[in-house]
Amino acid sequence: MTTDEWILSATLLGIIVTLVSGRVASDIVFLGAVFVLLSTGVVTPEGAFAGFANTSILTVAFLYVVATGAKETGATEIIARPLLQRVRSTRDAQARLLAPVVAMSAFVNNTPIVSMFIPVLTGLSKRTGIAPSKLFMPLSFASILGGVCTLIGTSTNVVVAGLVATHNRQHPASTVPEFTMFTITVIGLPVALIGLLYIVLFANRLLPSHADRTTMTPASAREYKAALRVTKNAPISGKTIEEAGLRHLPGAYLSEIERSDGALVAVGPEEVLATGDVLLFVGSVDSVVDLQSTKGLVPLSEEDTPLAYRSQRRLIEAVISAGSPLIGRSIRDAEIRTHYGAVVVAVHRHGHRLTGKLGDVVLRPGDTLLLEGPDDFARKYRDSADFMLVSALSGRAAPRHDRAYVALAIMAGLIVVMSLGLVEPVIAAMGAAALMIVTRCCTGAQARSEMNWEILMTIASAVCIGRAVETTGLGAKAAAHLIEFASPLGFFGIAGATYFLTVLFTSITSNNAAAILMFPIGLSVAQTSGVSFLPLAVLIAVGASCEFSTPIGYQTNLMVMGPGGYRWVDYTRFGTPLTILSGVVAVLSAYLVWGS
C-alpha cells in the first residue's frame, strides 16, 4: 500500500476505536480525523472542506427548520395523536410506530419522515415515561427498512437505477435490465419484514434505558399546583377524562375539576369535560409545561379569559422574595397580570401540598410561581426586589396551533416533491424551510436554536473521509481482493461479498457514496464471472442502506443519535445483528429469484 493508504487506514481505525469508547463527541472525532488527513496531505483543503457544501448536509440542515415549524405549531401532534394515543408500554409504542413508518418510507423519502417524528417521540417520551433510547433507533431503522422496498423509498435506490440507465446508454451492446418501481421489492420486502420482527423481539432487550430528565417522577421533582381552563372548541371538550388521555400522566395527575359555576368535582375516569372547566393538576414543572401547551388548555387570568398570542410569550419561574408586595395576598387578588403582564400557570410551595382553587392560594416568601409572560419578563424583573430568582424556561409558552395545518401542508408538499423527484432534494428542503418562516410557523431564532450542529459537522466530515477512501484507491483495492476470494464460491460467494463489501463501505463513507463506489466493481465482477449484474445491482442498493451497526452508515441514524442519547456502542450492539440478518436474507432472496 502507498503511504496515503496507510495513513488513511490508521485514521479509520482511530475513528472507530475513539467512537466506540464513547469518550469524545462524534463531531470532534471526525473533525480531528479530517485534520490528520489534511495535515498529512492525504486530502487537499478543497477536498477536506467540500463536505461542508455538500447538498446532503444542507438538505438535513433545512429539514431541521421544517421540523422546528412542525414542532412550534403542534402539527406533529395531529399526525401522531391517532397513531400513538393511549400507549400502554414500550413494546406497545414500538408496535404502533414501526409498521406505519415502514409503509410510509416505502413511498416517501425517509429523511423527512424521521425529521417529522423526532418531536412526536420526544413528546411521547415525556408523557409516558418511556425512555427515548427505546424509541428513536427503532424509528430510524424502520424508516431505512421501508426505504429499500421500492425504487423511490430512498435516494440510494434512485442513484443505482440512474447508474444502470447511464451504463445502458454508454454500452448498448451490454445492457442491464433497468429498475422499475418494484424491482428492488423482491429483496427489500423480505429484508424489511425480517428486520421488523427483529426490532419487535429484541429492541427492549438490547437497547439501553438511558435516564432522561423528562421522565422524572413526582417524587424526584418539585410539585406544582396548576390550573388550566378548557377553551371553546377544545379537542378534549365533551370527552371523558379517560378519552382525553388525562389519566396516568407521567409526573402529574388531575386532582380536581372546577366547573363553570364554581363547584369542585372529584375526578373519575368517566367524568366528562366541558367548555369552561378549570382543571387542577399537581405535578412536576416539565409535566405542567407539556399540559399547558396542549391545544384547548389555557392558563387563567384575573378576568378568567385566555391570553392572546400565547405563542409569542414565554414560561418563567419566579421565586417570591421576603419583601415582595405579593406576600399575604391571594393569587386572584394580587393582580399579577395588571402589575407584571403575566399570568400564573402554577405555584410550588416547598414541603406543602396545596389544595383548593389556585386563585385562593395566599402567597408566602419562597413560593415559586410558574408564569406565562412576555419575552422580556426575565430581563426586566431579574433584579427586582419582588423576586429572589427569575429564570425563563426554554421554548415558547404554547405552540401556534392556528398555524398547524399550514405546517402540515408544507410538510406534505415537501414529501411529495422529494418523493417524485420534481426538484433536487436540497431545493425542496430549502423551499419548505423558507415557507415555514415566511408563514410564521416558526421564527428565524427558533430555527437556528433547533439546529443540531454536532450532527451536521459529523456528516460533513464523513463526506471528506469517504472521498479519501475513493481517491486513494484503498476502497477499490479492498474490493478487488475480497471479490477475487469470493468468486470460487459461485453465486452465493459473489452476491454475499458484493453485499457485505457495500455495507462496509457504507459504514465508513455514506450510503450514496458506497453505492457509487461499488457499482463499477460489481459490474466488473459480473462481466468476468458470468453472473447477471441485475441481482448484484439490487444487492448494492439494499446493502448501501441496510447498515445499522454505526451511526454514520445512514443519515437518519445520526439524526436520532442526540434525541435518543445514544453512544456509538449502542448502534453496534443493537444494529450489528440486524445488519448481518438483513444481509443473509437479501443474499438468500437474490439466490431464490435470480441464482437458482
Could you describe the 3D structure shown?
- This protein is an alpha+beta fold and 596 residues long.
- 55% of the residues lie in helices and 9% in strands.
- It is elongated, with a radius of gyration of 28 Å.
- The protein starts with a helix and ends with a helix.
Mean pLDDT: 81
Low-confidence stretches: 213-220, 302-308
**Shape call:** elongated
Radius of gyration: 28 Å
The overall number of domains is: 2
Helix content: 55-70%
Q: How would you classify the helix and strand content by structural class? A: alpha+beta
Strand content: 5-15%
Write down how many β-strands occur, each being a DSSP E stretch of 2 or more residues: 9
Largest sheet, in brief, is:
9 strands, antiparallel
Q: In DSSP terms, counting alpha (H) and pi (I) runs of 4 or more, how many helices?
A: 23
For the record, give the distance between the C-alpha atoms at the N and C termini, rounded to a whole number.
39 Å
